[in-house]
UniProtKB/TrEMBL annotation:
<dbReference type="GO" id="GO:0000049">
    <property type="term" value="F:tRNA binding"/>
</dbReference>
<comment type="subunit">
    <text>Homotetramer formed by a catalytic dimer and a non-catalytic dimer serving as a binding platform that orients tRNASec for catalysis. Each tetramer binds the CCA ends of two tRNAs which point to the active sites of the catalytic dimer.</text>
</comment>
<dbReference type="GO" id="GO:0001717">
    <property type="term" value="P:conversion of seryl-tRNAsec to selenocys-tRNAsec"/>
</dbReference>
<dbReference type="GO" id="GO:0005737">
    <property type="term" value="C:cytoplasm"/>
</dbReference>
<feature type="binding site">
    <location>
        <position position="398"/>
    </location>
    <ligand>
        <name>tRNA</name>
    </ligand>
</feature>
<feature type="binding site">
    <location>
        <position position="105"/>
    </location>
    <ligand>
        <name>substrate</name>
    </ligand>
</feature>
<dbReference type="GO" id="GO:0001514">
    <property type="term" value="P:selenocysteine incorporation"/>
</dbReference>
<feature type="binding site">
    <location>
        <position position="75"/>
    </location>
    <ligand>
        <name>pyridoxal 5'-phosphate</name>
    </ligand>
</feature>
<keyword id="KW-0808">Transferase</keyword>
<keyword id="KW-0694">RNA-binding</keyword>
<dbReference type="InterPro" id="IPR015421">
    <property type="entry name" value="PyrdxlP-dep_Trfase_major"/>
</dbReference>
<dbReference type="InterPro" id="IPR019872">
    <property type="entry name" value="Sec-tRNA_Se_transferase"/>
</dbReference>
<feature type="modified residue" description="N6-(pyridoxal phosphate)lysine">
    <location>
        <position position="284"/>
    </location>
</feature>
<comment type="function">
    <text>Converts O-phosphoseryl-tRNA(Sec) to selenocysteinyl-tRNA(Sec) required for selenoprotein biosynthesis.</text>
</comment>
<feature type="binding site">
    <location>
        <position position="98"/>
    </location>
    <ligand>
        <name>substrate</name>
    </ligand>
</feature>
<dbReference type="Pfam" id="PF05889">
    <property type="entry name" value="SepSecS"/>
</dbReference>
<dbReference type="InterPro" id="IPR015424">
    <property type="entry name" value="PyrdxlP-dep_Trfase"/>
</dbReference>
């Protein structure tokens, strides 16, 4: 309804009523105008009606929704199912063009505007979360691993002679396979044990740079967010090393946006040294469906170079999901979620520590990890080699998802490289343990129920083990060999 239509409406309905409706409409439009003017996440969240109005306005700007449009090309935004069309708010053309994921589509002004606004709003949120000097970012419809691969492939053109990627070890398959898929040879740097924590071995990294030659190294591939007892890499020191040797530096910040500590490390690393790009997941940080990531950095031209490396158009779904989410939450709503996550981390640590003490275990001391915690399982290991993995199975079948049980001595071969002590980020971590994390969206009820079920599982398992000791052989139920989720 434009002003002319409102005027015509006054001939049908009482002008005072129409003017009231017009003012209500302007309230929605003013919010949209502020978004278009500023390109920032609104401080307060929008109502669903405002968001749907905005998305419908964008959709009518795409050619597939033009009244009387006649399409004779191979891609005209045709959708067979009306359910699918509604699921995507009739924004069918996706984002980008064949040569650049950030390019404007002539046939899809609305979808292109959606893409640009999403990238702008996400950039604002990255600054709000702690990386104040980030210069550019874009949402890519791939999860973290493939997004890292895109970064490595872009660097290939800058460093055609390079073969190696220096990678402080983290036992997570996708970031390792990202390097393999890009065609490079990962150089795995074992972590050093400091107390209970596994930390970056800076001396070994520098020795490896000298051994391989800086010109033969594509980049250093570091990590922030990770499972305890590993902690975020020493980003400032690595960034300084990269600047000293003129080696690019890519940071896997998978679920680090929710942590002020992880974001501060990236900000400081860029300030004192070199960080070329940092990559983060959409689903882990913003509670949207899996399938998107943010590639961000401090040099706008390099981030644009990465976006141009993406071949073809791309799905708009991840951009649409995160934009809807951030408009719903607003900056204040997202900050509140981050604050609540920190509070629950302390609550989880307290509850795990009490539970560990009650069962003769201990909460591992990992103060440099702001998201993940670990509880020792020495007692179970001493009782029975299979007991640790049995605990993981019991938790999973009792609907405790996300808890990771890490036994000793597991081996895993990935793309020809064998990791000893896989899942523990170390060839020989001193004890088996259980992980739990306080990630964005977690509630106190989640923690309370998890602790209650974990306590019950530990008691049940110990009872089974005691029974098994007195009546050999061990019951088959106690020998189930799975680490849970």
């Amino acid at each position: 309804m434009n002003s002319e239509n409102f005027t015509l409406s006054e001939k049908i309905v009482s002008p005072s009523y129409v003017r009231q409706g017009s003012q209500a409409r302007r309230s929605h439009e003013q919010l949209i105008r502020h978004l278009l003017e500023q390109g920032k996440c609104p401080e307060e969240g929008w109502s669903e009606s405002t968001i749907e109005l905005f998305l419908n306005e964008l959709a009518v700007m795409d050619s597939n929704n033009f009244l009387g449009n006649c399409g004779v090309g191979e891609r005209e935004g045709r959708v067979a199912s009306s359910l699918v069309a509604r699921r995507h708010y009739r924004l069918i053309h996706g984002i980008g063009r064949s040569g650049d994921i950030a390019a404007i589509q002539p046939k899809a002004a609305g979808s292109s505007l959606l893409n640009k606004l999403t990238n702008s709003v996400v950039l604002d949120i990255l600054k709000l979360a702690g990386v104040r000097s980030v210069a550019s970012c874009f949402v890519v419809p791939m999860a973290t691993g493939m997004s890292l691969t895109l970064c490595f492939l872009t660097l290939r053109h800058r460093r055609p002679k390079a073969r190696y990627i220096i990678w402080p070890r983290i036992d997570q398959k996708s970031c390792f396979k990202a390097m393999i898929t890009a065609g490079f040879e990962p150089v795995v740097m074992e972590n050093v044990l400091e107390g209970d924590e596994l930390r970056t071995d800076l001396e070994a990294v520098e020795r490896k740079i000298d051994e391989l030659g800086a010109e033969n190294i594509l980049c250093v591939h570091s990590t922030t967010s990770c499972f305890a007892p590993r902690v975020p890499d020493r980003l400032e020191e690595l960034a300084t090393l990269c600047a000293k040797h003129n080696i690019p530096h890519i940071v896997n910040n998978a679920y680090g946006v929710q942590s002020s500590k992880c974001m501060h490390l990236i900000q400081q690393g860029a300030r004192v040294g070199r960080i070329d790009a940092f990559v983060q997941s959409l689903d882990k940080n913003f509670m949207v469906p899996v399938g998107g990531a943010i590639i961000a950095g401090f040099d706008e031209s390099f981030i644009q170079e990465i976006s141009k490396m993406y071949p073809g158009r791309a799905s708009a779904s991840p951009s649409l999901d995160v934009l809807i989410t951030l408009l719903t939450l607003g900056a204040s709503g997202y900050k509140k979620l981050l604050s609540e996550r920190k509070e629950i981390y302390l609550f989880l640590a307290q509850e795990l520590k009490s539970l560990a003490s009650a069962h003769g275990e201990r909460l591992l001391h990992t103060p440099h990890n702001p998201i993940s915690l670990a509880m020792s399982l020495d007692g179970l290991q001493a009782e029975n080699d299979k007991a640790v993995t049995q605990l993981g199975s019991m938790l999973f079948t009792r609907q405790v998802s996300g808890a990771r049980v890490i036994p000793l001595g597991k081996e895993q071969t990935i793309s020809g490289h064998t990791f000893r002590g896989f899942m523990s980020h170390s060839e020989a971590y001193p004890c088996p343990y259980l992980n739990a994390a306080s990630a964005v969206g977690i509630t106190r009820e989640d923690v309370t129920l998890c602790i209650k079920r974990l306590d019950k599982c530990l008691k049940t398992l110990k009872k089974e083990l005691n029974t098994a000791k007195s009546s050999s052989p061990v019951p088959p139920s106690s020998l189930e060999d799975t680490a849970g989720e």
